[in-house]
Amino acid sequence: MKVNIILSPNNVDDLYYTAKTTVVIDVLRATSVILKAFDSGAKEVVPVGSIDFAMKFSVNAHGGQTLLCGERNTQMIEGFDLGNSPAEYTEDKIGGKTIILFTTNGSKAIVKAKYSKRVYIASFNNLSKMAEHLIHCDTDIEIITSGAHGVFCLEDTICAGALVKKMKELKSDLELNDVTNASLVLNEKFGHDINKMMRECEHGVLLKENGLESDIEFCSTIDNIPLIPYFIGGEIKLLVEENKPNNEI
Ligand code: MLT
Q1: 33 C-alpha vs ligand 1 centroid, how far in Å?
Q2: How do residues 34-87 score in pLDDT, each as one tens digit?
Q3: Which of 76, 159, 200, 219 has the most CB atoms less than 10 A away?
Q4: DSSP letters along 33-94, please?
Q5: Given pLDDT bands bounded at 50, 70 and 90, which one contains residue 249?
Q6: Which of 103, 30, 106, 27 is nearest to 72 (CA)?
Q7: Ligand 1 lined by 103 (C-beta under 6 Å)
Q8: Using a 6 Å cutoff on CB, does residue 84 contact ligand 1?
């Protein structure tokens, strides 16, 4: 079982993911928000690659039970219903709804992986649950760190390293490569205090400057939402345990 990490979605083209099992990480904040949305009872999340498409999609999709959500420069987009702060995604607001999500990096990274055999959504919030499931899948894994505007970011790479560390604890003979080993080293250095790391990384500093510091509390919490969201046919849904076959879904 090989594990590879793609440090920027721009490093490979969409077809690279064909028939592969992929995990997308954007801890500040897209994949953390997706976990929160499902924890608050969202029906599904539709990640999109542009604001225009989000607007068009919302008009005629899902019988009006849709919410337009997401950010531009960390702030809520004009005309949208919600921004990209986990705290906004409460049951009363989003329970049973379809979330159409546009974000600068995370939603685009998910859409870019659409040709994968399976795309899973990970953050620190579902770290152990995701590690268990990937080992259960027993297949080669591509981890995409969403990064920032196509460039490497620290927080996603450390989350990838933390995920690989958990997987290694479950299966010691994982086949790793230089980039995966480098992410383990970064996690060794910064993983003991995720909250501090997030406050000091570039995107964390930007969130603080934009008055969104409280989001870091939620996004740096480990294993508080043991759920497995996965992307299928343009929508992200929740993996339901009893539907999980002997091997990968
Ligand atoms: C992203 O996709 O880049 C992030 O989620 C942006 C953010 O929420 O600040």
Answers
A1: 9
A2: 999 999 999 999 999 999 999 988 766 655 689 999 999 999 999 999 999 999
A3: 159
A4: HHHHHHHTT-SEEEE-S-HHHHHHHHHHSGGG-EEEEEEETTEEPTT-SB-S-GGG--HHHH
A5: very low
A6: 103
A7: yes
A8: yes
